[in-house]
UniProtKB/TrEMBL annotation:
Residues 454-483 are annotated as: Disordered. Belongs to the MNN1/MNT family. PANTHER family: ALPHA-1,2-MANNOSYLTRANSFERASE MNN2 (PTHR31646). One of its GO terms (cellular component) is Golgi membrane. This is Alpha-1,3-mannosyltransferase. Coiled coil: none annotated.
Amino acid sequence: MQHASSSPARRYGVLHYLLLGSLLYALAVLSMSVFNLHSPGYLPSARLHTIVDSVKNGLNHARRASDQIREDEHALNVHVLPTGGTVERRLKCIAWRATANCRPDGPRIPERDRPCTKTVPSGQPGYCELQDEDSGELFRVARRTCDEAVGKAALFRCLEAPRFANFHVLTHKVMQRALTPGFALPNMMEGPSELQDGIVMVIYPKIVASAYASIRVLREVLGCRLPIEIWFRPDEMRKVTASIDPLRQLAVNDTIEFREIDDPLAIEFATKVFAIYHSAFDRVLFLDSDNVPVQDPTFLFQSHEFMKTGAVFWPDFWQPSHTLFHLHQDSMLWELLQIPFVDMFEQESGQVLVNRRRHAASLEIVNFFTFHRPNPFMQLKLVWGDKDLFRLAWLKLQAPFHMIKTPPAVAGKVINGLFCGMTMVQHDTQGNELFLHRNSHKLTGGAILNPADKKFKSSRGTHGRVEDSQHAETKRAKPIESEDYPDPAIWTHIMSFRTSSPRSEYEIETYHADPEFSKDQICYGRRRLGTSTHFYVQDIAGTDFFRLETYLRRFAMEAGQLHQATVDAIAAEQFHRRPFRQQD
């Protein structure tokens, strides 16, 4: 402490000596000029300009040095905001303070400072200077290095820094409420009862064929009897005529329940969090609708890792040394949450296994992270959607979870030695393939012709008449070869990471592989086979699930046929009613 208090005095001493030296230098230059004025052969005009410029440069240098020392001196009084606060501070923004050496605690660069309302340039190190309006203290908040601390699309301004600084306090309040004895999530049964396990999915119109195919595989191919909740937004499903009908037909004689999402904020990725949070199941296996297991996943609820921790998560392609979403050590995320940086794989939330009873507090924090407004995760693009919110909530609460250790593999197709991965392959705790998440090339089941579509009318004859529904069903019942399915086969090979290789060598590339593949298709993996000794490729024909994609494509096609049949029936009914309306 004595050393810190003596530092300002020494700095002011240096400043005084520097100013004195600069003045003496200027006087010396002026004295020399007077002497030279009386020297023989002196050129007054040219020499005088040179002397004046030298004096100006010397004074400017002294002024800049003085300003630099003053700014550095001021920075010593701006402290890092203490962690662990439980009371919101009344903070006001002073300015963005730019620093050098790619460090937020580096020497100040005053000329790069910005007012609170201006966007801070990408890659600019520094911090937001805030003042506590009650104590007058100055704090460094939202510290940044040269590395991207926020998402590239984020517009970061220090104007939002006071909310950034107080976010931990709001999180703490949520934690305290959730840790209160007796706290429970919605739809939880009171008192001791047998735990109910189930699968939760969220759908929207374009994903219905995938969901239908996945459920058919679960029931008819894998023999899974777990009850299923299908969550949806009614306003979304109404946008496409009869879009939910194939799933309703599937649920007639099955333990499938439809649940509506009624929160206006629960859109896009937030629907997943809403569904898990409000599920009626005690223990939930959430599955994205385009994610299919290769074996009955019921065993996961009895696995050692789940029984021990109550939560199992799966890794994404990305880690701090190789990340698309800037989740590295210098991300502002860690300061926002006031938790230490964790060097681990990012989370992929296409599948989440959680005990809602045991982890009610953690899920309450996930819910808060998702629905709090204004939302710093979204504003600063600190994470991508919901995918890391689960592990971050668990880390914040220091709750136990198991992250699958085997990095994701990639299923895709090989053409002329070029590999295009279009499906993420996740593993069980033993390193065996368990989930195939078709997230880069989804099933469609074929195009549906809508009565409001011109193509629909042109395909029905001269007067727009709808063909007899029985005749249409006969046509659809005709057997077809596997290559005639509307969705193409995209699984011929799986590219996997060797268990003997260090984690630092795991790097999944994103690329286009045209002309062998569509120029619009984003591929994952390694473009050319054999370019990395840390990855190996196996033919999917040698696996136990080599027929799985054929089942999925067939079931997706049947979903499309059911959907089209319903659309046709609606159109036929409307057509037959038309004369009566005209007659009225």
